[in-house]
Amino acid sequence: MFDWEDLRHFSAFSSAGSLSAAAKTLGVDHATVARRIASLEASLKLKLVDRRPRAYALTHEGQRVAELAEQMAMSSFALEHFASAGQQTVEGEVVLSAPPALLGSIVARRLGELYQRYPQLRLKLVGSKSKASLVRREADISIALARPTEPTLVVSLLGHLDYRLYASPGYLASATVRRYIGYDESQARSPQQQWLNLQAGQQPFALHSNDLRIQAQACAGGIGIACLPAFMAQEHGLKEAGSAQQTMSIEIWLAVHEDVRATPRIKAVTDFLQQQVRPLLRL
């Protein structure tokens, strides 16, 4: 019989694609993940990975075991969802995943009212630019910049978030050459960056960052012009640097797994998000 912890570590590796990424997900070091995979191989008497100089790669047997492990995980999550659905009081942990800028500037600063209403509720806020899988229980609720496509989710459009060009008052008063602030290569295909590239044309970029909050702070420091949502521009005292026609928008979606949407603690948070976030967006 194999150790379930060995399988959990192997499953994390197969999902993440590398030892280091799996270790980060599990909160352990990469040597522990490697040791657990070796232990699972010994228990199953199967070679699950090819140990290459710079990476591990799944063998054919490893791919099959990873598929079975995923099926087992789904069954486990379904059981958790079933058990949670019978809960009658608003208590316990809810994991909310959303882009960091939205979590920090819109959600986190409005949580006082929620906790006053439900003091036994515990939130875990996960700032992530990638989509969290609700099916694999990476989160209970997610706010995403594109419509989630997992088939067992209940999704609703919260609204549209408008972006415009902003700069600091000092920059607007003194700049002789327009310089821009944008995403780095990790977000080069995002709608915001593609739109900003069109606005900038041949004019230079002074700074790139994968974090919108850093872009806003740099913009406030007078480095150049950034593409930001209005709430973030207001936080930093920025002024519009483009015409009224220079605007773009992205959809903001709310998603929850269909098995737990009526669970009191989940419903309390989704209702709160609908009440607090939707009014800040354009419908």
DSSP summary, beta strand count: 11
What's the order of the H and E elements? Answer: HHHEEHEHHEEEHEHEHEHEEH
Residue stretches low in confidence (pLDDT < 50, at least 5 long) are none
* Helical content class: 40-55%
**Text of the CATH class of the largest domain:** Alpha Beta
CATH fold-level name of the largest domain? D-Maltodextrin-Binding Protein, domain 2
Largest sheet: 9 strands, mixed
* Count of DSSP H/I helices: 11
Q: What structural category characterises the helix and strand content?
A: alpha/beta
Average pLDDT across residues? 88
Radius of gyration, in Å, reads 22 Å
CATH architecture of the largest domain: 3-Layer(aba) Sandwich
- Share in β-strands: 15-25%
Global shape: globular
Number of domains: 2
Q: What is the first-to-last residue Cα distance?
A: 55 Å
